[in-house]
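idk why but the lab printer keeps eating my pages so im just putting this in chat instead. protein + benzoyl-formic acid:
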Amino acid sequence: MTLRALHETARRALDPVHYDYVAGGAGEERVLADNERAFDRYALLPRVLRGSARRDTSVDLPGARGAGPVVVAPTAFHRLMHPDGERATARAAAAEGAVLVTGAAATVAVGEVAAAAREAAPGAAVWFQLYPHPRHEVTEALVRRAEEAGCTALVVTVDSPVFGRHTRDLRNGFTDLPPGCAAENMRDLPGAPPGALTDIPMSPALSWRDFDALLGTTSLPVLVKGVLHPADALLAVEHGAAGIVVSNHGGRQCDTVPAALDCLPAVAEAVAGRVPVLLDGGVRRGGDVAVALALGAAAAGVGRPVLWALAAEGEAGVRRVLAELRDDYDHTLALCGGARNADLTRDMVVPRGGTR
Ligand SMILES: Cc1cc2nc3c(=O)[nH]c(=O)nc-3n(C[C@H](O)[C@H](O)[C@H](O)COP(=O)(O)O)c2cc1C
Ligand SMILES: O=C(O)C(=O)c1ccccc1
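predcted complex ->
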């Protein structure tokens, strides 16, 4: 309910071109729609009388403890939503105890984002998302910036060998950020000027060798984001990934892939608990988080809901969305007779509309 209202307020407040940038997906936006709809195909099968009065929804993730199993997924250009941009998002996430993944394409530099988070809550955890650069020294410079900022893990996005074809952006001719708004983490890096959308480098030449090289530059845990195939999840574990994020980039890359949720069970089975598996795409309510956990996720990421909240009400809006998601999840956990996240097990999800 809160989310629907915030989305509507954001839609009215934003420049329609910027609204479309966030709302849109690739191609015919089939995957965008499928991500949310996938949750409608599942129902929870509660257990009863399990004595779950004292619930603990906290989650241990690489380099971070979250108050609940919801993390803020990395999204670009928060200053298109609100003048405080990623600073406001960081303060809100920290205050609500949610792990924030700040992006290479942030419009506030990672050092300032992490400082804002720690100001709001001293123990706040911030992860840094990056696209590996074909020039290793550029990747390394980004890693150093994240380390110096005090980030506790890196998230490497691997579903973007080429830029997604965002249909609405192509139609709207959205290629440049407005004046005063730039990808601040890319400043002064070779081959990466910070002004235009496509200045975030992506490369189809990258391979697991580049991932290995990245691991060699840092002692931080590194998660791999954008895995759909269970064989890639296995490779990620073998190459030393600290976690896997099952994601189709919110339907913004290939428009002919499954809903993220539909890829989760096979990935979770392949990984077999060796590292945490996270899921993002279409998570909109506490019940969605519970379904993702029952299907094998350690935590769920939210992208667009945070941006709508930021556009509508700034820091307070982001706090509201994160608080409501956590509260709704805790309520669902209670209704399922669970005291901890691990109490949501595979046998507790069934097809919606009948168990056969
Ligand atoms: C406006 C926007 C910008 C995004 N930018 C990035 C990015 O820079 N890096 C990245 O790994 N994912 C990016 N994503 C994908 C999100 O991390 C996440 O996978 C997706 O938004 C989850 O789906 P949801 O929006 O349905 O919650 C972006 C998504 C949106 C909507
Ligand atoms: O919009 C996106 O989905 C995205 O990932 C991105 C990243 C960097 C620059 C522009 C877009």
